[in-house]
């Protein structure tokens, strides 16, 4: 256990108002972290005793807030796509380049591990203390999670089908059911290992990769397994127009209606990303039931604005989902893993989509990125600062120029400073990130390894791409090389 940590006289704190079930501001607060928990949180008392051996942090010019909960990321595959995916898309597929890239680009284990290290450092730098890591497992996966000190839900992916394409306007599903079954069995072992980890910070999350790539019987088994083990469940659903059209072709109903029908929507279900609901303008299906179904079943939406907004698409109405009772949480999906900037973009997109200032605001997105995610993971002790909660805390530097003047520190953080003002990130009372660096996670060699691995990935794309192109031909540099 780390030494007790006392933050004295914090200028601002975001505290949990339990009766009202919402965050509130408090000024001039003492916060004591001890034995992995928030041991005390009260108005500053200059005469209060300091526990033996405690580290004392001067809280004047600090905002103390709960650690952010990121419920959808792919840290092992996100960074190899940096510099590749930002301007890449297939116009015939509503601009998304997902299907083409997944077929052409395969990152090796060295690249996965190095990318993961850098991605975890990014996650922490933006104040994340809990993260759902959805990946293809590889040997060092859990060891790197443990090394980071973060609280991680490991979601080893499994699927019966892989996407392919033979022409820009078509996506094909290449089925291999034995493979899906074997991946599910392997995933169970990895989740068990995570749950049994001594740190108490690793957990499993059941992750059939996509609603359209897993057969009904395996999906039913997966949700039953989540129920039996008490683990959360997640899958990609309503994330692409191509997927929604295919699911309607197969079942005559939208993927969300089908998921409800086969029992996948539960209070422990996280939907990545439930963007293309029946009411979405790019779908225009005749029903208007999807959002209501998600709410009725108590499922959570993992809202990740950036990767979809890149293709001119996004979840249209954050406010309407919330108003209809959907629990909203935040994820970063891809790089950059900047959940603070995702909150800002969510506000901007929601207001632009529906021309309503109330469609989203600082309070509602911050709630989603903390309590919303914690509820989805079944952890009422996360995402809030109150006595007895987990000691997952972020210290924000109010002296940073972009936080000035700190009249409303969350607005300053979300709309102005973002990660630049994040000074220190604490998980279970232990500092995992301080002054711009992870304290436990080794990232020294990662950048070099990642660059070499990415170069191999781009070169080898020639053997996988539907037109036999290299990575540089699929996604040319943004400027010609002079
Ligand atoms: Zn995803």
From TrEMBL:
Lineage start: Bacteria, Pseudomonadati, Pseudomonadota, Alphaproteobacteria, Acetobacterales
Superkingdom, natural source: Bacteria
Protein's organism: Neoroseomonas alkaliterrae
Gene3D superfamilies: Metal-dependent hydrolases (3.20.20.140), Urease, subunit C, domain 1 (2.30.40.10)
GO molecular function annotation: hydrolase activity, acting on carbon-nitrogen (but not peptide) bonds
Record SUPFAM superfamilies: Composite domain of metallo-dependent hydrolases, Metallo-dependent hydrolases
Domain Amidohydrolase-related: residue ranges: 63-432
Keywords: Hydrolase
Name by which UniProt lists this protein: Cytosine/adenosine deaminase-related metal-dependent hydrolase
